[in-house]
Amino acid sequence: MPKYPGIRKLGKHWFFRIQHNHKREQHGPFDTAQAASDARLEYLKKLKHQKIRPGSLTVKQICIKYLEEHEKVYNRQSTAEKNEGICRNHILPILGKHKIEDLTPNEIRLFQKHCIEKKTPAVAHNTMKILKKILNWAVEWELLDSNPIKGKLPPPPTTRHPTIDPDQLKYIMQSIPIREKLIIGLGLFAGLRIGEIFALSWSDINFKDNTIHIQRQYSARVLGPLKTESSESIIPLWDPLASLLKIWRLQCGSMTWLFKGNTEDFPLSPAHWRYNYWRKIKEQFDLPKDLRFHDLRHSFATILLSLGADKGDIQQLMRHKSIKITMDIYRHLLPRHLIRALKFFNELDVKKLEDGGNKDEKILD
Hints:
About 45% of the residues lie in helices and about 10% in strands. The protein has helices at about 35-50, 60-75, 75-95, 105-120, 120-140, 165-175, 180-190, 195-200, 240-250, 270-285, 295-305, 310-320, 335-340; strands spanning about 5-10, 15-20, 25-30, 205, 210-215, 215-220, 220-225, 235. The chain has a three-stranded antiparallel beta sheet, covered by helices on one side. It has a three-stranded antiparallel beta sheet with strand order 4-5-8. It has a two-stranded antiparallel ribbon with strand order 6-7.
């Protein structure tokens, strides 16, 4: 929290800002920040005395303002769209017409009770989390006196994600077309996120050293920066995947992208592939319906842990900024240690992925 909220310096003087009658006002100049802060408090008291309260917007109006002025400005497009969906589907149907200044802690408790009873634990948690964030933003911009959501929210639920049986995995990887084999393999045997996989270009693959340079992601039809700074890295590539990539490079028809879209300008859309191919693979091989592609990334770390790989190696392969099970002592490792960790996969009883890789299988059609 800033020492003087709502105060800004322009040149040699100080000004205060408030939101009043749906408009942002700026008052000043003042010689010091303290003088501007005192004047701001007096002005707010005057407004309250006149029964003119900043913050007479509805929850729907404040959500729209928050999304336009904060989410879409400071967050990635995919994050902004996700939070916009939470507002549209879970907050506005119940609270949209309420005046934010009339929201009480009791109304918030009733809304939270509704979320817990009617929605999944994860959706209920994320809904309350984004609502609290919106109301905090409203307080910061003088649209609301105080946030009716008091204290800390309960921690998010612990979710156990489904896994794939190793024998079933062998059968699937031997049966699907080479492109799908590679996409799944990059998630399961390299730990890549789906947006990172579809953003890969051939210039990111170093066949001499068998490494992948991860430096962008493709999400919501936008090529953009990675999730975190620590996500950018050069990681080793498992030998069977490298061999399969060499075969695919001759077949894919693109000099730019590993997985080309309709034109050479952009890669294939992850959302399109997930709906048209991943969903069909799960149906065809009787995989759990709630198995997410991201669960392959979790399986990558789980397999390495079960085989005794070093926790510091795993942290670097996963490219996490921090991981609770990893101690600081393991952070500064030589590249050969990362290659050593990846070699644990050679102990798995899995056929070479490139076996049959050049067959033009059509089982998903």
